[in-house]
Amino acid sequence: MSTASKGTALITGASAGIGAVYADRLIKRGYDLILVARNEKLLKEVAAKIAVPGRTVTTLVADLANKESLKQVEKVLREDASITLLVNNAGVGSVASILKDNVEEMDAMIALNITALTRLTYAVAPAFVARGTGTIVNISSVVGIAVEMLNGVYSASKSYVLSFGHTLQRDLADKGVRIQSVLPGATATDFWDVAGYAPQKEGANTMRATDLVDAALAGLDKGELVTIPGLQDADAQDWTQWEEGRRAISKKFSHAKPGARYGV
Q1: For position 188, what pLDDT does the model report?
Q2: Which pLDDT score is estimated for 196?
Q3: Residue 2: its pLDDT value, please?
Q4: How far apart are CA 141 and CA 168, in angstroms?
Q5: How many domains does the chain have?
Q6: Which of 40, 118, 131, 213 is deepest in the core (most CB within 10 A)?
Q7: Which is nearest to 155 in space by CA: 165, 142, 144, 163?
Q8: pLDDT at position 226
Q9: What's the pLDDT score for residue 186?
Q10: Is residue 185 part of a domain?
Q11: Which residues does residue 34 pair with via DSSP β-bridges, in sequence order?
């Protein structure tokens, strides 16, 4: 367990699941914490459970889907010079098709999964650049690639997080700011209760949240830009090839004339 302070980590969605595990692991690594979530009771329970002598834990009750509440967290990220790490973990999902889901619920999902994550990143990035150091961890999902697996809006929101991470790496890497995009697969958290498929928590291929976070932090230590804990070593080259293929084809899109196959 580290005793030297590594600064402060602000973790969203920290009252349970992946966020709560990040809180436990990061405080043991020497970070002070700011834990953000809607449920004050659960936040305080997490704070009490993970307490470590010499480290401070602050709880900040905020609904990140609410603009005014979100602005409070943005203000903290802009003004608290002790913050060295942002973990954008808060999110919500669904397994329902477009014919069964409520569009207002989908709008709220976009507000949390995309808008809040974006605004928090925009709040902290200039502060990190000014100090020449800082780390942003964005929790995406494997459905950001395997987009047909769950609800379309959820998958699209996680594709956004992955794409956003790539551009953050382009813009910030040479300014001392580290970016990591983490792509969990099915993980045993209450996410599935909210998403509408609680049995997935007990699935044979469902990962424990502790294993997920430990792997994600190991990936961060290794300098990975994208960490996919569930991708086994024998298949890791498939991700490398997919990324290389994506970057290669992106150079072939811009031409003054359509392809001959269109007969234009």
Answers
A1: 82
A2: 57
A3: 53
A4: 17
A5: 1
A6: 213
A7: 144
A8: 97
A9: 85
A10: yes
A11: 10, 58
21: left (phi over 0), alpha (psi -120 to 50) or beta: alpha
Mean pLDDT of residues grouped by 10 in the chain (264 residues)?
81 96 98 97 97 97 96 98 97 86 91 97 98 97 90 93 97 97 88 63 83 97 96 95 95 95 96
Does 250 fall in a domain? no
Q: How far apart are the first and last CA of the chain?
A: 66
Closest CA to 122 of 159, 174, 183, 70: 70
CATH number at residue 14: 3.40.50.720
- At 75 the pLDDT is 98
Range of the domain at 41: 8-234
Has 154 been annotated as catalytic? yes
Beta pairing partners, 135 = 85, 178
Neighbours of 106 (CB within 10 A): 19
Dist. CA 225–CA 179, nearest whole Å: 6
3 found inside a domain: no
- Name the active-site residue from 22, 31, 122, 154: 154
Q: Is residue 262 part of a domain?
A: no
pLDDT given for residue 204 in this prediction? 77
pLDDT reported for residue 24: 98
Q: Is 168 exposed, middle or buried (0-12, 13-18, 19+ CB in 10 A)?
A: buried
pTM of model > 0.70: yes
Cβ-count burial 241-255 (b if 16+ within 10 Å, e if not) = eeeeeeeeeeeeeee
**C-alpha span between 126 and 172 (Å, rounded):** 10
